[in-house]
Design a protein that fits this description.
Elements (H helix, E strand, L loop, with lengths): L1 H10 L3 H12 L9 H13 L3 E8 L2 E8 L8 E6 L17 E3 L2 E3 L3 H21 L7 E6 L7 H8 L6 E4 L7 E3 L1 E2 L1 E10 L14 H12 L17 E10 L15 E10 L5 H18 L4 E5 L17 E2 L5 H14 L5 E3 L11 H6 L4 E3 L4 E3 L7 E4 H19 L3
Parallel strand pairs: 3-6, 3-7, 7-16, 8-15
Antiparallel strand pairs: 1-2, 2-6, 4-5, 5-18, 9-14, 10-12, 10-13, 11-12, 17-18
Length: about 425
């Protein structure tokens, strides 16, 4: 009976439907915090197919979607989670990023890789269960969340609303040969420098905040973090100055270059390891910056965490480092399901470099007591310097098949 259920479910994973769904998602721009059109689209999709649907308002006017296939009762529940928000688009796309294109087994388009291909895969897995007629004992929950690029706004909201499962899989695009259980922590913060404005005709007494910021940026390149090395993440901790803006006044007015800028701000990203805390990171930054003040009395700086709300879509939450034991049932269930589909074990279980150098929503699930891992379809970009991103169609289908069998495994546990 178990083998028959597997055959029924696997037969319902439809490649064309997965591609069409991912393509429909690509066509809808969904930069953080503008995910609501995707949530509305998916709400209609799930309702048409008989799921229990909850459209959650993360904040006024901003929605995410939770869909549930109810089980018979008595089994464990499984959450399949993906985020709807996508990264900002780099310059020089060759293709129209909002017109999905299938080429050579790849689906190209904005957010196809991170992670609309993964969202389509988890939905395809749920659809395979539903269409097969196999009734699980436990619930299968599909969560399509907002604000992962802000540190997991949607997942944190989901958990605060009481949505839970016994286990979870997050479909980040690390490749189906990788069952990833380790990732870094991430914290974003703003650093401001303050100046004294004046006109170029009378520079005496002025202080240029942008010039002062160059000293801050230089010092940040020399930061030495006080922490113990973490064997699984040998390149961390790591700091990146990701953006800079300077101008006149609180709105950073940029069109008055004859006037000395009196405010400059950088957004700093720190990827960190277990044992580090936000407090220790801030202290390490201050240790690098305080000598600047001693050598330059005109330099004034401030560290602000999280970055101010003026920067729409900025990362407001901290993602903590994650290291889930590979012995957790959900990890082993995905490994078994992978072997059942492919006839071989996965290539890697645990840390996946360089992808594990970043963070994601699994940390919030784990901190809420939900065993979890990362398993999603791979993709990439055509070549170095060309930003056109794609997801592998074969990987989407394989991911859907493995997660459908994982649902059979997990949701029939008693």
């Amino acid at each position: 009976m178990v083998d028959e259920s597997r055959r029924k479910v696997l037969a319902q994973v439809d490649q064309q439907e997965a591609v069409e769904l991912a393509s429909a998602l690509v066509r809808i721009p969904s930069f953080s915090p503008q995910e609501t059109p995707v949530a509305d689209f998916l709400a209609g999709y799930f309702r048409q197919r008989g799921y229990d649907v909850e459209l959650q308002e993360v904040e006024p006017g901003r929605s995410q979607i939770v869909a549930r296939l109810r089980g018979k009762g008595g089994g464990e529940s499984l959450m399949l989670l993906g985020h709807m928000d996508i990264n900002a688009l780099a310059r020089n796309w060759k293709r129209d990023p909002w017109k999905p294109q299938v080429e050579g087994g790849r689906l190209y388009g904005a957010g196809a890789l991170n992670m609309k291909g993964g969202v389509a895969a988890i939905i395809s897995a749920a659809e395979a269960i539903r269409r097969s007629g196999v009734r699980l004992n436990g619930d299968l929950v599909v969560a399509c969340v907002a604000g992962e690029t802000q540190g997991g706004e949607g997942t944190v909201h989901l958990l605060r609303r009481g949505v839970r499962a016994d286990m979870a899989v997050v479909a980040e695009p690390f490749g189906t040969d990788n069952l990833t259980t380790v990732h870094a922590g991430i914290v974003h913060l703003a650093i401001h420098t303050y100046g004294v404005t004046g006109h170029i005709s009378t520079l005496e007494g002025t202080v240029n905040a942008v010039v002062k910021m160059t000293k801050v940026i230089g010092a940040l390149q020399q930061v030495r973090f006080t922490c113990q090395p973490y064997k699984a993440l040998p390149a961390l901790p790591r700091l990146q100055v990701g953006s800079v803006i300077g101008g006149r006044g609180e709105s950073y007015r940029l069109v008055e270059p004859p006037y000395v800028p009196d405010l400059c701000t950088i957004i700093v990203d720190v990827h960190f390891v277990p044992g580090q805390t936000v407090e220790s990171i801030v202290e390490d930054l201050k240790r690098a910056l305080e000598p600047l003040k001693a050598s330059d009395p005109e330099l004034r700086y401030e560290i602000e965490l999280p970055p101010p709300p003026f920067f729409k879509g900025a990362r407001r939450l901290v993602m903590t480092p994650l290291d889930v034991p590979v012995t957790e049932h959900v990890v082993q269930a995905v490994a078994r399901s992978f072997q059942q589909v492919t006839g071989r074990p996965p290539r890697n279980i645990g840390v996946t470099l360089p992808m594990s150098y970043s963070g994601n929503d699994t940390c919030h699930l784990w901190n809420a007591g939900i065993p979890c891992l990362l398993f999603g379809p791979a993709g990439g970009r055509d070549e170095s310097g060309v930003p056109d991103e794609y997801v592998s169609i074969g990987e989407m289908v394989l991911c859907a098949k493995v997660l459908a069998l994982t649902a059979l495994d997990v949701c029939d546990l008693r």
